[in-house]
From TrEMBL:
InterPro entries with a match to the protein in the record: DegT/StrS_aminotransferase (IPR000653), PyrdxlP-dep_Trfase (IPR015424), PyrdxlP-dep_Trfase_major (IPR015421), PyrdxlP-dep_Trfase_small (IPR015422)
Protein name: DegT/DnrJ/EryC1/StrS family aminotransferase
The organism of origin for this protein: Microbacterium commune
SUPFAM superfamilies membership: PLP-dependent transferases
Pfam families: DegT_DnrJ_EryC1 (PF01041)
Length: 374
């Protein structure tokens, strides 16, 4: 089965991990520090805090933003559930904004219409690697006194109006799951535009530990002392994972180029195929395609999905609208809230895309798709 996504592991990646395994640090050590600095450098020069997963990074972001009971978080339903659930866990009310019909990105006009003084965070998702319209979202956030969050699980390495992903919102989160644009195995990171926000995220992911003597409330202990002011979690990344991440970062440009080549090949081959809509790219972005999401028209998505899988092509569907999950249905959310998102979900099919995918394999995917449609 040809997968829809797969990690690319080189000899250099393996050597980097082996070097850590033969050293003195396995968990939070010097490799973590180097990795965080490297992630921050490509994300606008802001401080990065690594995490055990993209979900953990989202939890850290909402906690750093001070999200709690009584707050509203506006987000898109066209995403993995963690974009919303990590805010729900903190007690927030989730308000889903419908997406643009063509891009499946959160619609800034809808966000602006529903934002209130209870809105704490506006959380966009760079679906499939295409950045959302952050200038418009920031204007709304500034108007109501909210923060912006970029769930950039799909988009590290991309740009929006000449600015790198990581510099587009007040808070940005990354995922380094194996199918993403680079991997640490499991892993993620948060980037914050203000040092204070980054420090809050750091302490939250470090079990809440405060190690700055100037902030101690207990002042008569020795140099070993550390204390907890607010509860946190152990979301610390390891040196083992960070070594892999550092090696992967050195290949991020090559990964991006190959994903762009695969995207162009799909675009050219499928542009005139009946029954398919290819993904849209806005002129002001340079995306790094994590997914290649086509739309299968005339109600044939499941039929084509099953035919492709039977033919050895590991297509996927990304994603069911978040509020369709029973955990949100049980809270009173109902189908029909976001018609564009639901229409997109009914047609979406993710074709294989990853750096080691060959041109021959891309052509095979196209041939199988055309056959499945006939």
């Amino acid at each position: 089965m040809l997968p829809y996504g797969r990690q690319s592991i080189s000899a250099d990646d393996i050597s980097a991990v082996v070097e850590v395994l033969q050293g003195d640090w396995l968990t939070t050590g010097p490799a973590v520090d180097r990795f965080e600095k490297a992630v921050g450098a490509i994300a606008g020069g802001h401080r990065a805090v690594s995490a055990t997963s993209g979900t953990a990074a989202l939890h850290m972001a909402y906690a750093a933003a001070g999200v709690g009971r009584g707050d509203q978080v506006i987000t898109t339903p066209m995403t993995f559930v963690a974009t919303a659930s990590t805010a729900s866990i903190l007690g927030a009310e989730i308000v889903f904004a419908d997406v643009e019909e063509d891009t499946a990105l959160i619609n800034p006009a809808v966000v602006d219409a529903i934002a209130t003084d209870r809105t704490k965070v506006i959380a966009a998702v760079d679906y499939a690697g295409h950045p959302a319209d952050y200038d418009a979202l920031q204007r709304t956030a500034d108007r109501v006194g909210a923060l912006t969050l970029d769930d950039a699980a799909h988009s590290i390495g991309g740009t929006y109006r000449g600015r790198p992903v990581g510099d587009l919102a007040d808070l940005t989160t990354f995922s380094f799951f194996p199918t993403k644009n680079l991997t640490t195995g499991e892993g993620g990171a948060l980037v914050a535009r203000t040092p204070a926000m980054a420090q809050r995220a750091h302490e939250f992911h470090f079990i809440g530990l405060v190690r700055d003597p100037s902030r101690f409330r207990i002042t008569d202990e020795g140099p070993w002392h550390q204390e907890v002011h607010d509860f946190g979690f152990n979301y610390r990344l390891t040196d083992i994972a960070s070594a892999l991440g550092l090696a992967q970062l050195r290949r991020l440009d090559a990964f991006a180029r190959r994903r762009a080549e695969i995207t162009a090949r799909y675009d050219a081959a499928l542009a005139e195929v009946e029954g398919v809509r290819i993904p849209v790219q806005r002129a002001d972005v340079d995306p790094v395609r994590h997914l290649y999401p086509v739309r299968i028209l005339e109600g044939r998505r499941r039929e084509v999905f099953e035919r492709m899988r039977a033919g050895g092509i590991g297509v996927q569907v990304n994603y069911m609208p978040v509020y369709w999950h029973p955990v949100y249905q049980d809270q009173g959310y109902r189908r029909g809230m976001c018609p564009n998102a639901e229409a997109f979900y009914a047609e979406e099919l993710s074709l294989p895309i990853f750096p080691d995918l060959t041109d021959h394999e891309v052509d095979e995917v196209v041939d199988r798709l055309v056959t499945a449609l006939t």
